[in-house]
Amino acid sequence: MTARPTVGVLALQGDVREHVAALTAAGARAVLVRRTTELEDVDALVLPGGESTTIEKLLRAFGMFAPVQGAVAAGMPALGSCAGMILLADRVLDATADQRTLGGLDITVRRNAFGRQVDSFEEDLHAPALGAGPGADPLHAVFIRAPWVEETGPDVEVLARTVAGTDADEHEAAGRIVAVRQGRLLATAFHPEIGHDPRVHAVFVDMVRDAQA
Ligand SMILES: NC(=O)CC[C@H](N)C(=O)O
């Protein structure tokens, strides 16, 4: 029997409902996390897409910044998509003046990086570690004012890169790192919660199960 872990979705701002649906499809019990005490009831946490500076401000306003940072540092598995990837990154380029992150992932992300070319685009990605290897359908990835990863530390696995880039500037946007894993942290620059494809969430739920084993 496979365990059905309880995964919290940080529900301060962003596309919370989509993550709840994807987690449920991937075999987890999804619950909303809106206050610090609710962190105690979850095996893992999803940081949704939205606006990283807004989520950071709300985390501080509700006294959740240090507790969430502490939970991640203590080994709670976490999945961040888009704004969530920014929140998990140790370093951010093109950040707002006072922007801070929770950190945990030894990566440097550039905010709104593709936005210099075009705000949003979709692309089919090949990513064996995310269930989209040879013989499987590619992962249809939706990018919305997405960051890209500019640098990765030695313990970071690169799981996916952009292929063709965008029309406006194919070259700049091609070959960019858009999915990474380090230990119990998984992050994507795109939105795996959009599009009814639960493969990325399934990989995450497996990471949560491994963390419990
Ligand atoms: N779709 C998204 O999550 C966009 C992220 C946003 N550009 C940020 O900086 O937080």
From TrEMBL:
SUPFAM superfamilies with a match to the protein in the record: Class I glutamine amidotransferase-like
Pathway involvement of the protein, from the record: Cofactor biosynthesis; pyridoxal 5'-phosphate biosynthesis
Keyword field contains Nuclease: no
InterPro entries membership: Class_I_gatase-like, PdxT/SNO, PdxT/SNO_CS
Keyword annotations of the record: Glutamine amidotransferase, Hydrolase, Lyase, Pyridoxal phosphate
Protein residues bound to L-glutamine: G50, E51, S52, R111, I144, R145
Catalytic residues identified in the record: C82, H191, E193
Molecular function as annotated in GO: glutaminase activity; pyridoxal 5'-phosphate synthase (glutamine hydrolysing) activity
Reactions it catalyzes: L-glutamine + H2O = L-glutamate + NH4(+); aldehydo-D-ribose 5-phosphate + D-glyceraldehyde 3-phosphate + L-glutamine = pyridoxal 5'-phosphate + L-glutamate + phosphate + 3 H2O + H(+)
Enzyme Commission number, as recorded: 4.3.3.6, 3.5.1.2
PROSITE patterns recorded: GATASE_TYPE_1 (PS51273), PDXT_SNO_1 (PS01236), PDXT_SNO_2 (PS51130)
Pfam families for the chain: SNO
Function text: Catalyzes the hydrolysis of glutamine to glutamate and ammonia as part of the biosynthesis of pyridoxal 5'-phosphate. The resulting ammonia molecule is channeled to the active site of PdxS.
PANTHER family in the record: PYRIDOXAL 5'-PHOSPHATE SYNTHASE SUBUNIT SNO, PYRIDOXAL 5'-PHOSPHATE SYNTHASE SUBUNIT SNO1-RELATED
Cross-referenced HAMAP family: PdxT
NCBIfam families registered for this protein in UniProt: PLP_synth_Pdx2
Quaternary structure and partners: In the presence of PdxS, forms a dodecamer of heterodimers. Only shows activity in the heterodimer.
Family: Belongs to the glutaminase PdxT/SNO family.
Protein's name in the database: Pyridoxal 5'-phosphate synthase subunit PdxT
Organism: Georgenia halotolerans
Originating gene: pdxT
